[in-house]
Amino acid sequence: MTTGTPPPTARKRSRARTFVPLAIAAWAVLEIWMLIVVADVAGGFTVLLLLAAGVVLGAVVMKRAGRRAFRNLTETLQQMPGQPGAGGSSPAPSSTRGNGFLMLAGLLIMIPGLISDVAGLLLLVPPVRSALSGFAERSLERRMRTAGPGSLSDAFQQARMHRPDGKVVQGEVIREDPSHPDDTPRPPLTP
Question: Whole-prediction pTM value?
Answer without folding.
Answer: 0.62
